[in-house]
Amino acid sequence: MIVGRQSCDTRKLEGSDIDVGNSRFGGMEALVIFDNVFIPNDRIFLDGETEFAGVLVERFAGYHRQSYGGCKVGVGDVLIGLLPLRPIITESARASHVKDKLIEMTHLNETLYCCGIACSAEGAQTKSGNYLIDLLLANVCKQNVTRFPYEIARLAEDIAGGLMVTAPSEKDLRDPKLGRYIDKYFRGVNDVPTEDRMRMMRLVENLTLGSSRRRLPD
């Protein structure tokens, strides 16, 4: 297995907790090579039955695209719920332009959720007894997921501001000399620790720019 390289930097190698991202459940891509592997005949799923290959791919893709209406929306829910918190945007939470962005993010996220529900609810039973989602609506769900999550991410980054990508690392925050300056100048609301604000910024970064943002399959 040749692991795909991620768009990350040395912060992950500095023994930190804040800058690592989703260390337990974060996804990654890999090139998996089967070299000289013996597969018994009774383990071959389609043994020369090429006429079913196209149907298999179509139906698998349909289920996969249907699931986008849940998994991508879950990420959107985290972003939408995170951004109004005062430690991130200080006292600007009541600003009309912030509210407008949050409303638009919610609209896009729930529309995507509706597509996932629709292609499931409009499914039908096959001759084998299995239920197959509505493939057309599943493809609509996929089309939306190629656009909506990125617009949601753009709006989230706009609300979070430049600090999301310019904040110092946790190593600098813990430094005896540098830490007091970072604590002073990167604090948002006085009664909220700077570390909490930085952790939340890293979460926004991780969900929109970091290694938690997996590329979409073809």
Overview of the structural elements:
The chain is mainly alpha-helical and 218 residues long. Helix content is 53%, strand content 4%. It contains nine helices and four strands, in the order ββαααββαααααα. It has helices at residues 53-82, 86-89, 96-121, 135-145, 148-160, 163-166, 170-174, 179-185, 194-208; strands at residues 2-3, 30-31, 124-125, 131-132. It has a two-stranded antiparallel sheet with strand order 1-2. α3 (96-121) runs antiparallel to α5 (148-160) and α5 (148-160) runs antiparallel to α9. The two termini are 20 Å apart. The model is unreliable at 214-218 (pLDDT under 50).
Fill in the keyword field for this structure:
218 residues, mainly alpha, two-stranded antiparallel ribbon, 9 helices, disordered C terminus
